[in-house]
Amino acid sequence: MFSGVKRTILGKRGENIVKKENKKNVARRKKTKTVKDKNLEVEDPNDGIDIFCTAILKREPLEGKLLLNPVRELSRKPPKDWDENDLMPIVKLLAGRPYVDGRGENREGAYAFDTIRSDFDSYLEKHDDIRGLMDPTYVVADVGGNVIPNFLLNNYPQTIPPPINFEGTNYIWAFAGRNRMADATHLIGWIQCAVPGLSVFKFDTTSVAMQY
User: Fold this and answer.
1) pLDDT-flagged residues of the chain (< 50)
2) pLDDT value at position 162?
3) What pTM value is reported for the model?
4) With CB atoms counted within 10 Å of each terminal CB, which end of the chain scores lower, N or C?
5) Distance CA 74, CA 201 (A)
6) Coil, strand or helix at 126
7) In sequence order, what are the residues at sequence separation of 6 or more whose Cβ sits closer than 8 angstroms to the Cβ of residue 176?
8) What are the boundaries of each domain within the chain?
9) Is 6 in contact with 21 (CB distance < 8 Å)?
């Protein structure tokens, strides 16, 4: 099933579009600095696949309580005065996380981050090098209250990283890294082959999602 479908956009026209976009990305990369931090686990941004997202996706969410103190510290300065050093403590926490756990004791920290999210995302959108440390993509299957199928994921190709889902769900998945768009597209095709006619939504975000 789905073995003959490429993970990238299908067809010659789609492949040409991808090639053109990759050339643009390489050209833009020459003008974009790369954040270098030995404590951050990232992919090589110099392969021409995706200029933005270099994060390596982790399986565990970030505990929201860990954001509380860094957010308080960042909030001491007006957003117009923020620089890279101000944001990096939060960026390091969020890098590669599929989502933030905002339940129970984590709620206060998650809420605190939500109060600055608009300004935080606005800064990232102007700084591709920092944005690339997160920049996740999400896929949501519209199960519509029906019995949730397993989507045949037990048979998912071993050559592709297994999709990482939100804790407690099996119809929401998170992607990061330079292959995130291709991996998300492949999963959508796989799901719709397993459950014909099922609607699937894809969201591209700047910072990570919250779970409350």
Assistant:
1) 1-34, 45-50
2) 84
3) 0.69
4) N
5) 33
6) coil
7) 53, 55, 56, 57, 96, 98, 134, 135, 136, 137
8) 136-206
9) no
